[in-house]
Amino acid sequence: MSGARERARAKLNLSLDVLKTRPDGYHDLRMVMQSAGLHDDVYVELREGGFFLAETNRHYIPSGDKNEAVKAARAFFSAAGLDRGAYIKIEKRIPVCAGLGGGSSDAAAVLRALNTLCGRPFTADALREIAAGVGSDVPFCVEGGTALVSGRGEIIEPLRPLEETRTVICMPFFSCSTPELFSRIDSRSTSCRPDTAGLVSAIGSGDVRGVARRMYNVFEDVLDRRSARAVGEIKGALLDAGALGAAMTGSGSAVFGLFEDVASAERAAAAARGLCREVFLTVTAGAEENLTIG
Ligand code: C5P
């Protein structure tokens, strides 16, 4: 049986601001999100109704209903009114629990793949609506690129694509708990906020330096002391090597920097290696074309 292949790209938060708690317990966010070249490879085949399995090259990732990719497949068939199943194979490269949206991006890739395999029953907007039911970061990952994202994560305003920019992504030796960071944000007033309007305007004028200068994530302010020190050290190493800007992505703990040239990005990657579990030398990436690549 023939299947469909998709790239599931990591997402970076060029900015992340938490506006307020919502009645449903989630938070209203305002963030500028950016896709990266670093990606997982996702392969999907249609199966008989009731069969759902997601195999990965990471033994600690669940293969059943706890996997966001399986949740996405179930949500797709439920919305389409189809009694079908799916076999999903994921070659993971994006670190988990990193704030890089790996699981969300895999889920979005499954939605794109199933839409292709089932004769495109859904528009991109409809796919994003299904995605919102799977997880907060999944709607952005359906198309990716550069976007202003708000609400719980379901309101996507595409922005001018950022020119391809050298990026170094660093995965520290620790992970952060997303609900824990949200609860710390709740229990204190945020004094520093990203200049989201200035960032959006810099993106609109293609000013990569202006973008990098304004990168800011409010979760960095509520890290515990050890994590804050580790993140600070990694950012320092990236900036010392010539990064135009550096920030933590999502609820961490991954940190990334943007660079003007390959030489400084390579220097930064080498400097960060001693401080991190994994370091990736990559680029910023545009939106998925035609919502499928295979
Ligand atoms: O939607 P998702 O499962 O990715 O969210 C993970 C956790 O992050 C939620 O349980 C919630 O604690 C927090 N969250 C939030 N507000 C958002 C997105 C996530 O409070 N907009």
- Percentage of residues in helical conformation: 25-40%
How would you spell out the order of helices and strands? EEEHEHHHEEEHHHEHEEHE
Determine the structural class based on helices, strands and strand pairing. Answer: alpha+beta
CATH-defined topology of the largest domain = Ribosomal Protein S5, domain 2
The CATH C-level class name of the largest domain: Alpha Beta
Average pLDDT number: 96
Strand content: 25-35%
The CATH architecture of the largest domain can be named as: 2-Layer Sandwich
The count of helical stretches stands at: 9
Which small molecules are bound? Answer: cytidine-5'-monophosphate
Largest sheet features: 11 strands, mixed
Q: What would you call the shape?
A: globular
Low-confidence stretches: none
> Assembly type of the shown chains?
single chain
Distance between the termini: 15 Å
- How many strands in all? 11
CA radius of gyration is 18 Å
- Whole-number count of domains: 2
